[in-house]
Amino acid sequence: MNLAKAKLPTRRAYSERIAELGAELPDFVVFESDIGHSTYSYLFGDKFPERYFNMGIAEVATMSAACGVASQGRPALVCGYGVFLTMRALEMVRSFACYPNLDVKIMSSHGGLTAAIDGVTHQATEDIAFMTTLPNMKVLVPADPRAARAAADISLATRGPFFTRLMRDPLLELYAEGEEFRLGGSKTLRRGADVAIAAYGDMVFKALDAAELLAAEGIEAEVLDLYSVKPWDREAVLAAVGKCGALLVAENHQRRNGLGYDIGVTLLREGLFVPFDNLGLEDRFAESGDYENMLVRHGLGAEAVAAAAKRLAAAKKGRT
Question: Can you state the angle between helices 259-269 and 234-244, rounded to 10 degrees?
């Protein structure tokens, strides 16, 4: 699949859409922790300064203030880096947004190793585990700018807490103008019958590259973009497993307690004892460096994804 280079990172595409929605939805307000020119939330602030609040480098206070506004009936969007919003401010998210089920939306930049050169302190590789564990929280992880714009729409149209994981740098354009997305949905990007590969965010592109490598060896992989991580598309995943008889989940996150763990448990509960594996960071931190090289170093490059999928396809054949 030949994809064009993205003109924008997903963090900017999301914030551009938020700035557009500001005129259509006059109630919501935006909170920022002094990195508005990194998250691009300043685009909203320039248009609606009376609805934009820079709270300084104080994520706990920022999240608390947003929850306070939401408790009065106005949706509040908090923008920042994933590490700080999902860990430093985690208690506020849990107790003051999720527990009362308030309309607090989290725009989280620098998801996973996409924050590569910024180092471990800015690489949110545990965020999916934290956010999907919280009751009432919904989670989207768009792969490209159009999906990111759609995530902004879905977030503000969905009642209750919402987390959107975005990337630091532009990658590739995947979806055409007008592509539709929904909470709980997914996209089947490539059809195959030998093994299914499910991914989200940047790892969707590695899954597609891996499928090309596998095709060269006569192995046809089905590729799913699980852009909705909570809730995830159970029907599509189970259908792919039923069709292919083997499943690999690849995610730019700690392997433990990511989406792969959730899907793996579901397969066991359903009695689907098929060859299965999930790729992610193996209980370790990364380091500062080039994004592509870092994925390779941590077993998340296209070749590693292809090799894991090939093992599963072979294991399936060994059972027949």
Answer: 70
